[in-house]
Every structure is written in structure tokens, then in C-alpha cells.
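re the bet — no i am not wrong, look at it urself. input seq straight from the record:
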Amino acid sequence: QVHLVESGGGSVQAGGSLRLSCAASGYTYSGGRMGWFRQAPGKEREWVAVVTIGRGITYYPSSVKGRFTISQDNAKNTVYLQMNSLKPEDTAMYYCAASPRTGPINRPDDYDYWGQGTQVTVSS
């Protein structure tokens, strides 16, 4: 059974930084991908960063590229999301997701495991 637990959310002013963590337990696959998604009230869930397990290739949408950085610590089975230069539009619930399969990186439906989320609020 795979469990993903996010932490590190909070409230910050615009221009500030936060680092989210996703601790994975039970993930015994040597491949696949892990990522961060976010969902604001009334909006669809959208991807913000993905890393391939093993090779460590990272992907970002244009909305966060250059501001967010995803990284993985294989020894700790943890994935991080460093968020810098935060904007009010980054306010959302942030979710960690994982899939042992290859496939589209930006579609929530293609991920098998999800955490419960951590709230990020950015004030202007």
C-alpha cells in the first residue's frame, strides 16, 4: 500500500518562499513518476511539477517554470517542491501524486496514488 503525506504548506506574502515535502511509504517501484498538482476553489486540478523516478528528469508548466523546483531524496523516499517568488495566484491546495507507470505527466487521471494535500496561501 502506497501512502503519500504532504507537509510544509502555510501562508506567505507575495514574493516569499515555501518548501513542500511529500513522504512516500510503500512505493517499491524503481520507475514511474512523482509530481505536484494544485487545485484552487472552483478550478480544475493542474500540474505544477513532475520528476521521473530514477532518472530524475523534471518537468514544469510555464506558469511556474523558473520559480518552482522539484527534487527527490531517494534515501528518504521524499519529494520536495521548492516554491520561490510566490504569487497570489499560486494559492491552492497542493497535492503530491505518484504513478509507477509511464504516461502523460500532466493529467491527474494518470496518477495512481495521491496525498491528502497541503494548503498554500499567498497574500498580496
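see?? DSSP finds no helices and eleven strands in the chain. told u. also The chain has a mean pLDDT of 94. so pay up
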